[in-house]
Amino acid sequence: METIKDKEFGGERPLFASKHLRLEGVTIHAGESALKECEDIEAVKCRFEGKYPFWHVDGFMIKDCLFTPGARAALWYSRNLIMTDTLVEAPKMFREMDNLKLVNVNIPDAQETLWHCRGVELENVSVKMPIICSCTARISVSQTTDKKETTHSNIAAMLRYPMLISNPRMHSGTLIM
Fold first, then answer.
1. Most CB contacts within 10 A, which of 28, 38, 85, 120?
2. Alpha carbons 67 and 102: distance in angstroms, whole number
């Protein structure tokens, strides 16, 4: 796997169609589709400022990263994502994706998040309303803290399907859409 460390990229598609690539301490500035049509990507301690950085990506891991508000619509039409310890300030995240696992992720602006996603696992994910979500498949939720933002009742409300939760005091379980 090739590693790119402590570099900055901007403009359109600087890393288009990359495969087997690890980014460490990389900043993606304003521009579009930095990592479009990529495969087997790892991003660690990176900052994403430009629009649409991860579109049509298969197999990627994002750890300890920041998606600024300018990185809107950052993860669409992709599959097989593991995101951990990440702050997502950008709206319109995760659309038409398969197999996403989010662990220790904070999403303070969850506008239009998780539209048409399938195979979603959320663990210790903090989400602030409003969220407009249209999830069409299985969503697994587990909570490891007592934060209000991660309770089952709030997640169910966030997903617009509160009737699916029989016991809102549960701290782990699965929502089936």
1. 28
2. 14
**pLDDT by residue, tens only, the chain of 177 residues:** 999 999 999 999 999 999 999 999 999 999 899 999 999 999 999 999 999 999 999 999 999 999 999 998 999 999 999 999 999 999 889 999 999 999 999 988 887 888 888 898 989 888 875 555 555 445 556 654 444 443 444 444 444 333 232 333 333 333 333
- The closest of 151, 146, 155 to 170, measured between CA atoms, is 151
d(CA 63, CA 19): 18
- What's the token pair of residue 13? 């598609």
The dihedral built from the CA positions of residue 87, 107, 58 and 82, taken in this order, carries a sign that is positive
In angstroms, the CA 84 to CA 82 distance is 7
> Token pair of 84, please?
């951990």
Contact yes or no for 138/176 (Cβ under 8 A): yes
Residue closest to 73 by CA, chosen among 100, 105, 111: 111
Tokens of 133: 């979500």
Which amino acid is it at 150?
A: T
Strands 172-176, 138-142: pairing kind: antiparallel
